[in-house]
Amino acid sequence: MTMTEMDDDDAALAGEYAIGLLEGAEAAGARVRLREDPRFAAAVADWRERLVQLDADTAEVAPPARVYAAIERRLFGGAGPVGAGSGQGAAGRAAGGLWRWLAGLGTAAALAVAVFVVVLPSSGTPPTLLANLASEDGALALRVGVLEDFSAMHVILDAGDAPEGRVLQLWAIAEGQAPVSLGVVESRDYFLPDYPRDLVEQGITLAVSEEPPGGSPTGQPTGAVLAAGTLEDV
Question: Per its UniProt entry, which superkingdom is the organism in (predicted)?
Answer without folding.
Answer: Bacteria
